[in-house]
Recover the amino acids of this structure.
């Protein structure tokens, strides 16, 4: 088995994180940075942490509905696996947290890991569509300050590009579900110009995905999936808004939505575990558009990242202790499953 620490993608991500941190701290006045931290209104950080943790609990609620066609899983197990998975995403390389999350729940509930992973793919798609709605709302409601016309145009272009991408994904998934073999044959022809190994990985994955990816047939549960997705990202806005208020910034909620969308895109960029650097850069450059001083913007980024980083790690470690599990062991098992999947 290849260790994830030997993965070239990991070290490329670490290099990106180091470069971005260097750029962010290069022209920062340390005294101004300390003054920004001293001016924090700490009472605003309590709701920021509460809403962050509440978001993970609502994610467990949505996951329960996604799993309902397979099994009525214990809510306690869903919450525990969610905390452990997101903790692992912050600490382990190669973003193994999703596989850790699937493995933990699969072990506790006696469900095949492949079927659980399929529900997490749908989970991510639901996130994508909800973020798309948030992005489109931001594009058409937020007006950036004068002199930011290029950024405004980029925001609009990004909205339309993301919309086109997700519409293409929806069309592909509908075709895959209704005419699985025909869609796979078309995909095989499209993949012919690529090395054989690409098709050998993609085609079996799609077959396993179709087997495990089943939405609940009950309309009430489908509406609950939509409702929980909206709640998840509505709740995700509130920590950003609270931290901005903690630094004395009384921006409208649309600015928090703008920063949140940038953070979502930032975590897609290769980075070190915990998304260090990319997360901070997205927040800093987003706030600079609104005339926030660099030192204040960087202090905001550090606090927002810390709120999204440390509390879930504490909760995840508590769940590991309760279940008598080891993060290192879970990481090895998830890495083995990932290597096996890539080798098939």
């Amino acid at each position: 088995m290849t260790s994830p620490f030997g993965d070239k993608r990991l070290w490329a991500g670490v290099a990106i994180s180091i470069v971005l941190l260097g750029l962010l701290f290069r022209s920062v006045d340390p005294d101004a940075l300390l003054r920004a931290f001293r001016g924090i209104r700490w009472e605003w950080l309590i709701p920021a942490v509460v809403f962050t943790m509440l978001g993970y609990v609502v994610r467990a609620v949505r996951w329960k509905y996604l799993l309902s066609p397979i099994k009525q899983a214990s809510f306690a197990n869903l919450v525990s696996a969610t905390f452990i998975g997101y903790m692992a995403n912050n600490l382990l390389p190669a973003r193994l947290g999703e596989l850790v999350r699937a493995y933990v729940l699969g072990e506790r509930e006696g469900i095949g890991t492949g079927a659980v992973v399929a529900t997490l793919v749908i989970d991510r798609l639901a996130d994508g569509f909800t973020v798309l709605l948030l992005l489109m709302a931001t594009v058409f409601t937020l007006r950036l300050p004068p002199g930011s016309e290029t950024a405004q145009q980029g925001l609009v272009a990004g909205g339309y590009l993301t919309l086109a991408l997700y519409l293409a994904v929806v069309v592909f998934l509908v075709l895959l579900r209704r005419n699985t073999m025909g869609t796979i044959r078309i995909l095989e022809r499209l993949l012919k110009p690529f090395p054989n190994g690409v098709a050998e990985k993609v085609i079996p994955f799609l077959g396993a995905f179709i087997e495990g990816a089943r939405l609940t047939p009950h309309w009430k549960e489908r509406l609950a999936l939509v409702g929980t997705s909206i709640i998840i990202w509505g709740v995700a806005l509130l920590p950003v808004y609270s931290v901005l208020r903690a630094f004395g910034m009384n921006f409208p909620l649309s600015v928090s939505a703008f920063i949140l969308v940038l953070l979502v895109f930032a975590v897609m960029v290769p980075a070190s575990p915990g998304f260090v650097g990319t997360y901070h850069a997205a927040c800093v450059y987003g706030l600079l558009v609104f005339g926030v001083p660099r030192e204040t913007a960087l202090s905001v980024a550090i606090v927002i990242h810390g709120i999204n980083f440390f509390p879930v790690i504490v909760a995840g470690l508590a769940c590991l202790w309760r279940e008598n599990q080891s993060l290192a062991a879970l990481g090895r098992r998830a890495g083995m499953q990932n290597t096996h999947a890539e080798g098939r």
